[in-house]
Amino acid sequence: MAGDFAIDWMAECASTNSMLVDTPPTDDGRIHVLVADRQTAGRGRRGRQWLSWDDASLTFSVLWRFRPGAPAPAGLSLVVGLALARALEELGVQGVQLKWPNDVLVHGEKLAGILIDLLPGRGRPPAAVIGIGLNLRLPADADVPGQAGVTDLARALEGAPPARTAILAAILGQLHRLLDTYSTAGFPALREAWMQRNAFAELPVRITGESETLHGICAGVDEDGALLLRTDAGLQRILAGDVSLRPHPGAAA
Ligand code: ATP
Ligand code: BTN
After folding, report:
1. pLDDT tens-digit profile of 2-26?
2. pTM of the prediction?
3. Are 178 and 82 in contact (CB under 8 A)?
4. Atom 15, ligand 2: which residue's CA is nearest?
5. Are 170 and 153 in contact (CB under 8 A)?
6. Which of 86, 112, 137, 241 is spaced 20 to 30 A from 58 at the CA atom?
């Protein structure tokens, strides 16, 4: 499987996602991966920042080209989260959970984040730049504004994390496997596995969008990867777009 990947490892760049979006490598049939030891402008969703510290993180992006006729990439960030969860489990992490649509948590604290940028096909099948930031060993004084709790692999494993190359290999292996399934069978084939790791299953949550906030019980995801929210007005379907999910202990069951 190693031959399927072309891995470029840089000391520093602004953002591995931005770099692959701005200058995508020529399609030579391989899956292009860009890793950076250090990002000077790591990005989250909607202009938010991804923070990393020297030797404290694994930050990389993968350029995934969809096969002609592949399903629309609904649910892609969930599939990537599942691949990341499985790779972490393979490395010995227990209690990995997924927060819809794009975070990986351990004991409710954020261990990794996913950022997906879609590239227009311009006559060819569309492609996605899949960015992953994984905390390995955060500095004791690390401050991550806007995040209730953060954690790192050293804490999750209660010991020194494996080498970054080994972690990367585990993640790429799972990503390859699950994206192949996703390309042929779509998200329905992976939905159950995602649901098993849903951090907020049957819990009260608050969904905050640009203009409105919804409260309800998290009832999982549907076959497109949309969040299902049980509210007083019935079951609502939430698309990932511009919304954030937060716990909401006060919501009615
Ligand atoms: P949402 O629920 O809206 O997806 P989010 O916190 O996942 O919320 P993103 O834009 O997806 O938001 O991710 C960026 C956010 O991740 C930042 O605003 C910050 O709170 C958090 N963050 C930044 N760096 C780190 C890090 N190293 N570890 C954990 N969390 C981080
Ligand atoms: C999130 O926290 O929800 C998304 C964070 C994604 C961070 C990764 S690090 C590698 C890639 N390059 C970026 O600028 N962002 C992603």
Report:
1. 559 999 999 999 999 999 999 999 9
2. 0.94
3. yes
4. 43
5. no
6. 241
DSSP 95-149: SEEEETTTEEEETTEEEEEEEEEEEP-TTS--EEEEEEEEESS--TT---TT-S-
Measured from the Cα of 132, ligand 2's closest atom is 8
Q: How far is the CA of 57 from the centre of ligand 2 (A)?
A: 11
Over range 44-62, report the average pLDDT: 93
- pLDDT, tens digit, 9 for 90 and up, residues 144-168: 998 889 999 999 999 999 999 999 9
Tell me which residues have their CB closer than 6 angstroms to ligand 1.
Answer: 44-46, 48-52, 102-103, 110, 113, 135, 144, 146-147, 150, 244-245
User: In DSSP terms, which residues pair with 63 in a beta bridge?
Assistant: 32, 129
* C-alpha span between 146 and 46 (Å, rounded): 13
Range in 13-17, 122-126, 244-248 with the lowest mean pLDDT: 122-126
Nearest CA, atom 18, ligand 1: 48
Residues with CB under 6 A from ligand 2: 15-17, 39, 42-45, 50, 59-61, 102-103, 113-115, 131-133
Report all structural domains of the chain as residue ranges with CATH numbers, in order of start. Answer: 2-195 (3.30.930.10), 204-247 (2.30.30.100)
- Please spell the DSSP secondary structure of 2-68, one letter per residue: GGGEEEEEEEEES-HHHHHHHSPPP--SSEEEEEEEEESS-B-GGG-B----TTTEEEEEEEEEPPT
- One DSSP character per residue, 141-184 reads T---TT-S-B--HHHHHTSPPPPHHHHHHHHHHHHHHHHHHHHH
